[in-house]
Each structure stands twice: as C-alpha cells, then as structure tokens.
Amino acid sequence: MSNPTETNAAQARTAAPPPPPAPPPAEWWRSARWRWGAAALLAAAACYAPFQLVPFHVFQLTMVLIYAVALLGLNLLVGHAGQISLGHGAFFAVGAYTAAILLEHWALPYPLTLPVAAGAAFLLGLAFGVPAMRLRGLYLALVTLAIAIFLVPLLKRFEDLTGGSMGLTLAKPAPPAWSGLAEDQWLYFLTLAVAVAAFLLCAGLLRSRVGRALHAIRDNEGAAEVMGVRLSVHKTLAFAWSAMFAGTAGCVYTWVIGFVSPDSFTVNLSITLLAGLVVGGLGSLSGPVLGGLFVMFVPGLAQDINDAAPGVIFGLLIIAVMYVAPTGLAGLAGRLIRKIPRKE
User: Fold this and answer.
1) pTM
2) Which of 18, 45, 157, 161 falls between 20 and 30 A from 281, CA-CA?
3) Which residues, at least 6 apart from 267, have a Cβ–Cβ distance to it below 8 Å?
C-alpha cells in the first residue's frame, strides 16, 4: 500500500505546468483599439480617395492595390514559408494572359475570368512546386528565375492565341449606370474589393494550422518534420497559393490596363516585386501594401532623378531604405508606433 504523501508528490511532479498568465485586460483592449482604429481610418481613406483625386492618381492607387495582392502571395512564400522566388512575375503574367485570352477569344464575362485565372496560376504553381520542394537557397532561386526567363519567348511564340509581340488589346469593364462612377473610380473599387478579399483570405490562412506549419518550416525544417509537419506538402502548397494570389493580381491588371504584351512581364518585374516585398517588410500583412507603393512609385522616381541610369538610382534607393529600415518599412513603422507614449 503506497504512502499518500508519496502519491501526492508524484502527481505534483507529473502534473502539467500551469498555463502562462493572460495579458491584462487593459493591455489587450488598448492593442485591439489601436488595431481596429487604424483599420477603420484606412478603410475610410481608401473609400474617400477616388472622389478627391484626378483620374491619373486614382489609376496609380489602383495599380498599388494590384501590386499589393501580387506581393501578398510572394510574402506568403518568402516571408512566411521561408522559400525564395525570382519568378513571381511569371505567375502574374499567367493570370493576366488567362483573363485576356478568355475575354478576347471566348468573350467570357469579367467576373468569371477571375477564378479561372487564379486557378490556372494555382495549378502552374503546384506543378513547379513539386520539383522545387527538393531545392533550397540559390538552387531554388535559379529554378524560379528560369520560369521568368522562358515565359516571354513562350508567349511570343503562340501568336494566334496571345497576340505575339503585339499583345492583346481589350475593353475595360464599364461602370454600371446605377453606380454613378467614372471608369477609373469603378476599376478602383473593383480592385479594392478583390484586394480586401485576398488579404482576408491570407490572414485566415496564416491563423490556421497551415500558417503555423509554414512558420515552423521557415524557422527550422528539421524540428518541423519531427513535430509531424509534412514538408513536401506544405512547401508545394505554399508555391501554389503564392502563384494563385499573383494570378489574381494579373487578372485584375488586365481589367485595369486593357492591354497585355510579353514585354510587360519580363524578369525585371519579378526582381522588382521581390525588392518591393523586402523593402515593404517580410512576414507582415502591411508589408505588401508598402511594397506596392514602392513598386509603383520608386522606379518612376528613379527615372525622374536620372534618365540615363534609372537602374543605378533604383538600386541606391533600395540600399538607402534597407540601411534605415533593415526589417522593412513595416518594421520601421512598428518601432515608431511602439515609441509613442500611451496613457495608462
């Protein structure tokens, strides 16, 4: 017969440690209040802006949203899964050309081109993700770079389908009469709706078990595999999801521009997208938005500063930003916000 004192001691040793204390209610409420307040202000500004800006500036904001959706997918792959891609512009082009071909040759309604373009990019990303899951680092970067390199001549080869070097010219979605919106405003709100849906989908994905698995792979692949994470499945799906967001952005790009050509999707696009994501901030939901602003405005600024060598100016601007904000503009903004004194 065991001693009750020894039994209680053994149970105390084997008992699970107590859970960590919950954050104080005041601290949680203050954080939530700041988060929801910032989201409300951002939503109000996004809806108010197209009615106060000239059409060209509305077009620029529309392009920022398109690039933000494309960078959202790249951020999922690079910032959250720890992989690398220099061919993201190719998946962007797949979505753009899928929508253009469906509109030009099959006269498909605009809303139906979006899921088809996203699905085509998803399947292509899945196909390239299977062999790429065994690679990492420089070798993976070279494979993805090859995708961007051979896509342009491939698009030029099938002239009957893609329009060859001349590309395809398409009609833009016309605003309905009941909306009372101009064409630029209508395209902006369409893009805004797609961007909001994409960000909500990505946020939900990252909060799920899949998101936790991607973070585990990024931090330590060996430890993640020991914990039961299937590396091959999640790496492949990360490529596919990343391509899906890029294809979605490419489809909306076709709606807004009304024209696609192979020269719009060269390797420079892929490199610019990756640079924009790094400057915006890896691993954060605000990073793609800041990266979209960078991709839209900084190349033009570099062209204005020195028309003879815009690439040099562009590179120097990237170096300057990374020197000031090594974790990206999103990380810099977070540090500045944390330094703001708050009332207790």
Assistant:
1) 0.87
2) 45
3) 86, 89, 145, 148, 149
